[in-house]
């Protein structure tokens, strides 16, 4: 039964780098990666995922996650 | 000058990139009097948290932000970046860049119009970085843009106004649309010249950030833009080919 509560380990691509993460959804991945309290925006496989939809966004093997934050710009 | 319902007092929009330090950036923004600064989105590393620090600094300045889609070469990238920017910065404003050519950073005007149409339909208030092409400008307005931002010269080149004729024609063609010269301005005199052509505002970054003294240069640009604006409103004289004595000829003493 416990197996159902343990997130799967997935090999993902996070900001262009391979990463092995135990997370079932995008919200979980952000916590594992240390972005829990950070101001960031996210995209999954090139598509924007609003913050309110991260928990409902399931992750799959090989998914590409982009995590961006405010930065200097012209 | 009305940017989607916001009427700034300052006609200088300042970029936030390439300053020697965050403190100098903050001081330059204050010295410029700018009420709008441009920002971007970039990948964040959880350990470094550079973006979090930068965003704190900008919020403390109390200015509006105009997020950009810099570096996007496709409609898809630009639209997705705009969506992410709207969530993070909490503004419908987007400085829309769809780059078409790497050496000149010239806009891909076809992609630009397509992205502007999609974003405007989705509630964005689009500030398109474009060329001085009249027909493209028409298409952007049709797509829903209420501001146009033609380049003066390639981004970061500091060359000034490469096509004065084209910029003048654009101003004449769109008397009611706020026009901002965005990119290529290197000197305060370039900014003053654009304002004398009747442009509403100037967006620049490198000319201030890469100056020997960015804070002093920010102030210099603010003065030049104010000066150019005042000159435009004052009604410049018509140039002529031959000399015309400014001192009255009548009443000159006969001394021979």
Question: What is this structure's SSE topology?
Answer:
The complex is a heterodimer of chains A (74) and B (256).
Chain A: E1 9-14, E2 17-22, H1 26-32, E3 41-44, E4 47-49, E5 64-72
Parallel strand pairs in A: 1-5
Antiparallel strand pairs in A: 1-2, 3-4, 3-5
Chain B: E1 12-15, H1 22-32, E2 36-43, H2 50-61, E3 64-67, H3 75-89, E4 93-96, E5 99-101, E6 106-107, H4 109-121, E7 125-130, H5 134-143, E8 149-150, H6 164-173, E9 180-182, H7 188-196, E10 201-204, H8 206-209, H9 214-234
Short summary:
Chain A has one helix at 26-32; strands spanning 9-14, 17-22, 41-44, 47-49, 64-72. With 74 residues, chain A is mainly beta.
Q: How would you characterize the overall build of this protein?
A:
The complex is a heterodimer of chains A (74) and B (256). Chain A contains 1 helix and 5 strands; from the N terminus they run E-E-H-E-E-E. Chain A has 74 residues and is mainly beta. Chain A starts with 8 loop residues before the first strand and ends with a strand. The model of chain A has no long low-confidence stretch (mean pLDDT 92). In chain B, the strands form 3 sheets. A 5-stranded parallel sheet of chain B has the order 3-2-1-10-9. The longest helix of chain B is centred in the C-terminal third of the chain and has 21 residues, at 214-234. The chains are: A mainly beta (74), B alpha/beta (256). Chain A binds chain B through residues 15-16, 33-35, 38-43, 46-48, 50-51, 66-74, and chain B through 15-19, 25, 38-47, 49-52, 54-55, 58, 67-68, 70, 76, 80, 83-85, 87-89, 155-156, 205-206. Strand 5 (64-72) of chain A pairs antiparallel with strand 2 (36-43) of chain B, so a sheet runs across the interface.
């Amino acid at each position: 039964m416990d197996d159902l509560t343990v997130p799967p380990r997935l090999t993902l691509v996070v900001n262009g780098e391979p990463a092995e993460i135990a997370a079932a959804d995008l919200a979980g991945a952000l916590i594992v990666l240390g972005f829990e309290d950070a101001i960031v925006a996210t995209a999954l496989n090139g598509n924007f995922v609003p913050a309110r939809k991260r928990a409902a966004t399931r992750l799959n093997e090989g998914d590409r996650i982009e995590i961006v934050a405010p930065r200097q710009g012209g | 000058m009305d940017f989607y319902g916001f009427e700034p007092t300052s006609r200088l929009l300042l970029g936030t990139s390439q300053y020697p330090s965050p403190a100098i950036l903050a001081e330059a923004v204050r010295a410029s009097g700018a009420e709008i600064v441009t920002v971007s989105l970039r990948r964040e590393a959880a350990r470094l948290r550079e973006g979090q620090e930068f965003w704190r600094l900008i919020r403390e300045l109390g200015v509006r932000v105009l997020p950009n889609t810099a570096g996007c070469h496709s409609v898809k990238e630009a639209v997705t970046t705009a969506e992410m920017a709207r969530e993070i910065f909490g503004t419908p404003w987007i400085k829309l860049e769809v780059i078409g050519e790497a050496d000149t950073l010239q806009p891909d005007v076809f992609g630009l119009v397509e992205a502007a149409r999609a974003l405007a339909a989705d509630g964005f208030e689009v500030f398109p970085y474009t060329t001085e092409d009249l027909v493209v400008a028409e298409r952007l307005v049709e797509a829903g843009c209420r501001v146009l931002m033609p380049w003066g010269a390639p981004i970061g080149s500091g060359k000034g106004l490469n096509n004065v004729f084209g910029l003048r024609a654009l101003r004449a063609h769109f008397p009611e649309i706020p026009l901002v010269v965005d990119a290529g301005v290197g000197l305060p005199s370039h900014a003053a010249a654009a304002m004398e052509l009747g442009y509403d505002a100037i967006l620049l970054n490198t000319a201030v950030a890469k100056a020997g003294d960015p804070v002093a240069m920010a102030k210099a640009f603010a003065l030049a833009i104010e000066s150019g604006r005042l000159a435009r409103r004052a009604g410049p004289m018509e140039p002529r080919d031959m000399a015309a004595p400014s001192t009255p000829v009548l009443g000159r003493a006969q001394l021979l």
